[in-house]
Structure formats: structure tokens, C-alpha cells
């Protein structure tokens, strides 16, 4: 038997309860993994709260985890017992200390990358790569806006975009977080509790606006991000930590012939070759020092409720992980 965090109904952090589950031997095409680290994402919070009704109940949330293969099912090629692997699975189930999973979802963890970093940053790292290289292929010399720049994906966007030669404007909620993102390469920092985001962006860009705004906040910042765009600028709304965005009149986009996209990472990495290439690019950026993210904040497995609460209360920055 394995331990898992099971939810029987949507609600607050208290709905996640430790229960014993039967994992069983891996079937054809599957492996069994002893998980050592589990990534915690805002997506998990949306699922737990009921905002996303994508997990059949009772169910085990969680998208990403890392660990060691302990058994290999019939027909599995390219993976062996003892290898370290990480995965992102749209079928959920990561909040457990052991699980069976399709080998098709696995990515090997390279030497030089620890399992906690792999588990807690796989979604964030692959998301950042997709946003910068596929959703909006960023070019050197462009100016961008990153809302919630001190967040898990925000920090990676800031650092990677800076490395690519972009001018980066980031918004944060405190001077402490401002110092953090400046150290990651943020050229201009806006304290959104004290300054008007649109006015500051217009001043920084001499009235032009930004080529792209990356916004994971949603409801509270969506229209401000839209107002920050230059003519032909793009708004990339890839999250909604403050709540879903209210319906938008499409005619608003005519002001600057702007575009809005609501990308989902999984659509861009559904091809295994694309997924592996994205993961490899992220791991290489970590190993080479292009990305030096803040170490993940780690909670014991049983303290998942506290991890969710701290994330919702904006007490964390960067990646969050459970140590099994």
C-alpha cells in the first residue's frame, strides 16, 4: 500500500487527506515509481478549490513528481529499474509516495539536477520555455511585461528573457520581491501596490508600450496588461491566481490590433518529441547557469494544506515542493 493525498470534495486545504491506496504492479507500458519529490502548483489549488472541475472525485491531485523506477511493465523500452525520472501528467495522481504511470509520460533526470528541483520546476520550466519560444517567440531588443515577476514561472521568464536580450519590466508586491527579481535580470520593477502599472509602463517605454505581456494573475491584472501593450502587442494570459477573467469585448483589441492568447502548456508539449526537447532545454538552462532560480520551498508530504495556504496567501515565491 502507498500513501496518497485524496480529496473527496472540493474546498479548502483541509479536504486533502492522507489515505492508503493500492498501487499494484505495473501493467503493459507502465512503470512503478517510488516518488521522492512532488511539485505543487497553482493548478493544484484550482483543482482542490473546485475552480477547475477536471479531477473525478474521489481523486488524487497533482501534476508533477520525481523519483526512482522500482518496477517496469511489459513492453516498456528505454527505462530501467533504478533510473531517476520526472513527469508531468494531465491525468493527475502525483500527490502520492508511490504510483504506477505510463512510461510515455516520463523524462529522465540528467546528472547535475536534483529530484526536488526537477519535480517542482518541470511544469514551471517547460511553461516558461513554451511561453518564450512558441506562444510568443521572443526576439532580442523587445520589451516585455511580466506580471507577478517573483512567482515561480515569473522568475524564470525574467531570467530567461533577460538572457535572450529582452528588456524586462516586472511587477511585484514588495521591496523584498523587487530585489529578488532585480537579481534575476529585471530591468524595471513596478511595485503594484504603490504605483499605477499602466502609467509606469508607458513612462518606461516612452509611451510605446510592450511587445508582450505575460500575465498569470488573471482577474486583477488582465485589463491593465492589455492597456500596457504596444500596437500589434500580445497579451499572454497563462494563469488566474486572482480569479477568472471577466468576459472581454473583442472590440477592445482594435485599439492596437492586439491579440490575446490563453495557452495551456500541455497543448504545446503533447508530442513526446516536443515535450522531451522542452524538458532538455530547461534542464540545460539550469545546468549551464542561464537559469538560477530561487531554491524551492519544501514542505513535508503531510503538510500539503500549509503549502497550499501559503501559496494562496502569497507567502511563497518561486517553486514549491513536497518531500516524500
Automatic annotation (TrEMBL):
Its EC number is 1.6.5.5. One of its GO terms (molecular function) is NADPH binding. InterPro entries: ADH-like_C, ADH-like_N, ER, GroES-like_sf, NAD(P)-bd_dom_sf, QOR-like. Keywords: NADP, Oxidoreductase. Residues 11-322 form the Enoyl reductase (ER) domain. It catalyses: 2 a quinone + NADPH + H(+) = 2 a 1,4-benzosemiquinone + NADP(+). GO terms for cellular component: cytosol. Belongs to the zinc-containing alcohol dehydrogenase family. Quinone oxidoreductase subfamily. This is NADPH:quinone reductase. It comes from Alcanivorax dieselolei (strain DSM 16502 / CGMCC 1.3690 / MCCC 1A00001 / B-5). The lineage of its organism: Bacteria, Pseudomonadati, Pseudomonadota, Gammaproteobacteria, Oceanospirillales.
